[in-house]
Design brief:
Blueprint: H1 9-26, E1 31-32, E2 35-36, H2 38-43, H3 47-70, H4 75-102, H5 110-117, H6 124-127, H7 140-159, H8 165-184, H9 196-199, H10 201-212, H11 216-225, H12 229-241, H13 249-266, H14 271-276, H15 279-286, H16 288-298, H17 318-345
Antiparallel strand pairs: 1-2
Helix pairs in contact: 1-3, 1-15, 1-16, 3-7, 3-10, 3-13, 4-5, 4-17, 8-10, 10-13, 12-13, 16-17
Length: 369
């Protein structure tokens, strides 16, 4: 049987776009004459939605590949790999915040550090102290949503019969959407846009895409439709820029983003997919997790323009240099070695990036089967 590598370089390119969008949203406004990045400041947070789409698509496809290769999904191995992938860089960042707090350099509370460490940061009752700045751990809300997804999706795939998986995921998606619509009709200040129960469809729908793509007939249809991924991208930009249907926009993005991702993955010869697979773009995608973790420390210009406790390290252009220096060190000295260790302790069916693969048996497949 011909084997293929589980690594999808196009998705690294999308990770690069996602993290740059988030950073520019948090950064100060850049303006040259009449040209500025105002749109990115207003809408760059949708880079998080792209991260969600990638996670839902990739995590589900990897679990299905493991089931196909080994006959079953190992929850133990999955959580070992996730723990070594997610926890060390995140906890190292939180430790850095704690040290800065002890020296009274930045305002960060023990409550928010605790909530971030246990991935409860997206629920304010566990994390926010009224009257206190909580910026430096604010981005942990999205990590909390992803961690909760890691508890839900593998359980569904493990316990639900194969023929019921899409049904279960679809029902859960509908429940999330109905609940979100109900909460959106309440006063605006009561809408919990960071809660898992209002954002989970951004990961569940891409997981449904991943299951559908395992079928040869649906994969063939998707490959033919993939050439029109740019229509999904145009619709996404329109919905984000002119939110006439604001209450339906989250659901629309949850559908359009995986269609856009799959379109570039299944047709990697396209010009945009070629751009995504450029070596510098893929490198930014590889270090995107560390970039995402550390960017709130250095980029305060949009939401806290008068707060620069780190001084020149939060000024242009040093904030960019500092972010990439710290993130690169985090990736090569911490993240990458521990991902390899996790793969060694719990060998995956698809090894992922070549440099992350550990020795051991593996059936290498890509998203397209």
């Amino acid at each position: 049987m011909e084997t293929k590598h589980g690594y999808l370089p196009t998705l690294d390119g999308w990770r690069a776009i996602a993290v740059v969008l988030v950073i520019l949203c948090h950064d100060s406004l850049y303006k040259i004459g009449p040209v500025s990045d105002q749109w990115l400041q207003e809408h760059g947070l949708h880079g998080v939605d792209i991260f969600f789409g990638i996670s839902g698509l990739l995590i589900c496809s990897r679990l299905l590949e493991e089931e196909e290769a080994l006959g079953a999904i190992s929850l133990r191995n999955f959580y070992v790999r996730r723990a070594f992938r997610i926890l060390p860089p995140a906890y190292f960042y939180l430790l850095a915040l704690l040290v800065l707090r002890l020296f009274s350099i930045i305002p960060v509370t023990l409550k928010e550090l605790f909530a971030s460490a246990f991935f409860l940061r997206n629920y304010s009752r566990f994390s926010v102290t009224p009257g206190q700045i909580d910026w430096y751990t604010g981005h942990f809300w999205s990590l909390a949503v992803e961690e909760h997804f890691y508890l839900i999706l593998p359980s569904i795939l493990y316990f639900a019969p194969r023929r019921w998986r899409v049904v279960v995921l679809t029902v859960l998606t509908c429940l999330v959407c109905v609940w979100r619509l109900y909460r959106q009709w309440l006063p605006p200040w009561d809408f919990p846009w960071q809660h898992t129960d209002t954002r989970l469809d951004a990961l569940l729908i891409p997981a449904i895409f991943a299951i559908a793509l395992r079928r040869a007939d649906l994969r063939a249809i998707a490959t033919r439709l993939a050439r029109y991924w740019w229509i999904a991208a145009a619709a996404l930009l329109w919905l984000v820029t002119w939110p006439q249907f604001e209450r339906l926009t989250p659901l629309a993005l949850s559908i359009l983003i995986p269609f856009m991702l799959v379109g570039t993955v299944l047709r990697p010869s396209g010009w945009f997919a070629s751009f995504l697979e450029l070596a510098p773009v893929r490198w930014v995608g590889r270090v995107s997790y560390s970039l995402y973790l550390w960017q709130n420390l250095f980029f305060t210009g949009h939401y806290l323009p008068d707060s620069r406790p780190l001084g020149f390290l939060q000024s242009f252009p040093l904030r960019w240099l500092a972010l990439f220096a710290v993130s690169t060190a985090s990736y090569y000295l911490l993240e990458k070695p521990l991902v390899r260790l996790g793969h060694r302790l719990a060998p995956p069916a698809t090894p992922g990036r070549p440099e992350s693969a550990a020795p051991g048996p593996a059936l290498e497949r890509n998203l397209a089967g």
